[in-house]
Amino acid sequence: MHEDFPNGSVWLVGAGPGDPELLTRKAARLIGMADVVLYDALVGEGVLDLARVGAQLVYVGKRSGRHSRDQGSIDQLIVEAALTGARVVRLKGGDPSIFGRSAEEMTACRAAGVRVQVCPGITAASAAAASLGVSLTLRGMARRLTFVTAHARAGEALAMDWAALADPGATLAVYMGKAAAPEVATQLIGAGMAPDTPVAVIENASLPNETTVTTRLDLLPLAAKGLRGDGPALLLIGQAVGQDVPATAQAQPIATAVPAR
Ligand code: SAH
Predict the structure, then answer these.
(1) Ligand 1 proximity of 124 Cβ (cutoff 6 Å)
(2) Tetrapyrrole methylase domain: from which residue to which, for each copy (predicted)?
């Protein structure tokens, strides 16, 4: 018996970047125990297959720019479901604590006297780096890793400390950054970042329809125009992103080092 999921309580569960195999074992167990699962567009289909037969699956779709429920009504749904005595899982893409509005959901639960716990998940930046075969940090080259969101309210410019973000010794992961890619590039170069800084745009990381584009900062506005998908996409910017060595190129020196017989 697991006593960490009593009736009338809530778990905010990180569903990872999409591939169901990138769920934690704990997430899989909690999903399987839930009476009600509230999920949104970023949660991959295979993940929901883990819910038990008879569990209520509730779509609370949230994707920027599309019709979606507001955060307040999602908070209310979570609380109401728990107050009926159900075991509630609120599934969130990636890690709940990274651009996931988990604080609002926790506050709403606590205000209603509902017990709420968090199960962490693999964030999109980790999945993107894995797909690219690069490291987010790199000894002597990328000592700092910065997660920012480039989501601005309609009609508003991005309010960011560009000078701080233009650090050549950092890797910058820009969530919700596809639409803002041209502005991000212009502002970072304006703040002194080298125009040839490597950039990768990863869409649908860890999913079968994943696409990656690698380019340089000054060419990012052009590359962004060519991106036609409407899946979630992340920008990775920094010297570490350009350090990928294709497996075949890596194998070459070893092969040639074998003396000819
Ligand atoms: N909590 C999530 C982030 C939510 S914000 C996490 O930790 O990953 C939503 C943004 O996350 C998207 O706009 C995109 O920038 C990024 N994202 C989420 N899933 C992604 C995926 N599979 N591939 C690329 N980017 C993704």
Answers:
(1) yes
(2) 10-218
Q: Do 21 and 127 form a contact (C-beta atoms < 8 A)?
A: no
Whole-number Å distance, alpha carbon 199 to ligand 1 midpoint, is 17
CA 176–ligand 1 middle distance (angstroms): 7
Contacts of 246 (CB under 8 A, 6+ apart): none
Closest C-alpha among 53, 117, 110 to residue 90:
117
pLDDT recorded at residue 162: 96
Sheet holding 198-203, edge to edge: 144-149, 170-175, 233-237, 198-203, 211-216
pLDDT by residue (tens digit) across 126-150? 999 999 999 999 998 999 999 999 8
Q: Tell me, using a 6 A CB cutoff, whether residue 99 lines ligand 1.
A: yes
The pLDDT of residue 248 is 47
Instruction: Give, using CA atoms, the residue closest to atom 13 of ligand 1.
Output: 176
By C-alpha distance, which of 154, 258, 243, 167 is closest to 200?
243
pLDDT digits (tens, 9 = 90+) for 186-244: 999 999 999 999 999 999 999 999 999 999 999 999 998 877 788 999 999 999 999 85
- Our measurement of the distance from residue 86's CA atom to the centroid of its chain's CA atoms, rounded to an integer in Å, reads 28
Which ranges of the chain would DSSP assign to H, the alpha helix?
25-33, 45-48, 71-83, 102-111, 124-132, 162-165, 181-190, 220-225, 247-257
| Residue 62 among the catalytic residues | yes
Ordered by where they begin, the domains of the chain are 10-119 (3.40.1010.10), 124-253 (3.30.950.10)
pTM of the model: 0.90
pLDDT category of residue 249 using cuts at 50, 70 and 90: very low
